Amino acid sequence: MTDQKPSVLFVCVHNAGRSQMAAGYLRDLAGDRVEVRSAGSMPAEQINPIAVEAMREVGIDITAEQPKVLTTQAVQDSDVVITMGCGDACPFFPGKRYEDWKLEDPAGQGIEAVRPIRDEIRSRIEALIDELLASADAPQDDERHPSVLFVCKKNGGKSQMAAALMRRLAGDAIQVHSAGTAPGSALNALSAASVAEVGASMDGEHPKPIEPGLLLSVDRVVVIGDEAVVEPVPGMAGAIESWCIDEPSERDIEGKERMRLIRDELAKKVRDLASELASED
């Protein structure tokens, strides 16, 4: 993301229900701190009246909104693109954050069925606002610390382990982040348990996509394993490196023992990286 306020585009097929409710919530909860857009791959003629009613129940008026066609320009102008059942229709631009929210379509449903969809959208919007505004609201530190982004495919195991080990080793001396190219739904319990054995913690973490602003600003992007691919984008401050990690399961080593071997290899690489970043700072 840039130094300007973040911008979010919500996209569903008809731009009549889910994307309009999401846009309404984001405008209401974030105010003018976030720029909000919505569009549809096949826009309807009008907003779903049940969606309007559901939002009115929580004090948000979306009656003035109209379904709009999805354009390449709208995607290009947005930092975060959130699709709801029409991801294939959305143009792709490197460096942007894409998410697909699996939400039931309110089309043709009554108010009783739409209320849970509305409430799930609110929960997702609240989490999104926390992520978008965390860096902007964080107190500024005059001393700059080196930063690293660990990436694997699901961001539930190896990248989270590496991040936890680095936080344990470096404390506040290195800014540590992790993300996934295709984030899963939960952390790997064995991964969390294995790093806890050496005093590191994955508490409070969850799988998340790559934040475009982080990709541009961190001093090092570390891609762990061969399932994830991160392409360089123009303006990156740091370099991308890949860590090939031995896979004990290929030697019929499974469960806790497998995870401990992976942890120990990651820990060695993390120590080497911490020393390297410290010498560059």
Automatic annotation (TrEMBL):
UniProt domain Phosphotyrosine protein phosphatase I: residue ranges: 6-131, 146-276
Phylogenetic classification of the source organism: Bacteria, Bacillati, Actinomycetota, Actinomycetes, Micrococcales
InterPro entries: Ptyr_pPase, Ptyr_pPase_sf
One Pfam short name: LMWPc
Organism: Arsenicicoccus piscis
Protein name: Phosphotyrosine protein phosphatase I domain-containing protein
CDD domains, sorted: LMWP_ArsC
SMART domains (alphabetical): LMWPc
Keyword vocabulary terms for this entry: Arsenical resistance
